[in-house]
Specification:
With 139 residues, the chain is α/β, with parallel strands linked by helices. The protein is built from 6 helices and 5 strands.
């Protein structure tokens, strides 16, 4: 399996996976650490609930993530203005994205600034059933 992890310093991708992570990438990183090397960073979030994948990819949430990456709003209120939506609705969506570990709030006085460190998301959603026999053989 090809390692789909972050390959360069310029590649700031968050990988979103369903039920299983990039085990090959993790093994490669651990081997590199054992050799005293510093492996390339690899960032992923693994969801066990398909509803979490849906929450990430909802059009309103994708619009907010794009706005944060492209416009870097200084507050929730500014983010709401940029997407032309109600502040309370945007706040709810941003709290949801924070609970999914996709954004971070930086406190600036009374303002909360939504931030992300990545430029893109890659969602991996296998449509086949897990190969239980193979998993048991590897255990």
């Amino acid at each position: 399996m090809e390692n789909t992890g972050n390959q360069t310093d310029d590649d700031r991708t968050m990988y979103i996976r369903f039920q299983s992570g990039d085990e090959d990438g993790l093994r490669d990183a651990l081997r590199a650490l054992d050799r005293g090397e510093t492996p390339d960073p690899h960032f992923e979030v693994i969801f066990d609930d398909p509803d979490d994948i849906h929450r990430v990819t909802r059009p309103k949430n994708v619009e907010l993530l794009r706005t944060i990456v492209q416009r870097e709003p200084e507050s929730i209120r500014e983010a709401a203005r940029l997407v032309d939506r109600d502040v309370r609705q945007v706040h709810t969506n941003l709290e949801e994205l924070e609970s999914l570990h996709l954004i971070h709030f930086e406190q600036d006085g009374r303002r909360k600034r939504p931030t992300v460190w990545y430029d893109s998301l890659e969602v991996d959603l296998p449509l086949h059933a897990p190969d239980v026999a193979r998993d048991e053989a590897n255990a």
